[in-house]
Design a protein that fits this description.
One of its GO terms (molecular function) is deaminase activity. By secondary structure, the chain is an alpha+beta fold. It is about 30% helix and about 30% strand. The chain has a single domain, classed as RutC-like (60s Ribosomal Protein L30, Chain: A, 2-Layer Sandwich). Strand 2 and strand 3 form a beta hairpin. It is globular and about 40 Å long.
Amino acid sequence: MATRDVVFPPGRRALYDRNRYSPAVRSNGFLFVSGQVGSLEDGSPEPDLQAQVRLAFENLQAILAEAGASFDDVVDVTVFMVDPESTFEAIWEVVPEYWGDAPHPTLTAVGVTWLYGFQFEIKVIAKLPQAPGG
């Protein structure tokens, strides 16, 4: 098996090593990002829903930036929401702060019953920008 080209956000490698997964993997010009949640420094969930969503996006942005990308490079998004019937509107008030202008990436939203204490998770696939002269 080929060695994975893993991208780690600054200061969070221990979290991923402890849980035995990669935050993101580069492959064939794409970046596949694991689900990001609004975790505090100790790994616990941010209790306020909208703050939790913002923190999940901040964690996502840190990984994208480490790979030389931004949310503008995202082509596919999957979000997971606990009890979307009651949380969707509050979550979607935050999304435009990070989402950017149209055209938007594709989106799959999934309602779930449990996210390890979190209420929101986002995972993405991004097309990595070409290096200058590449």
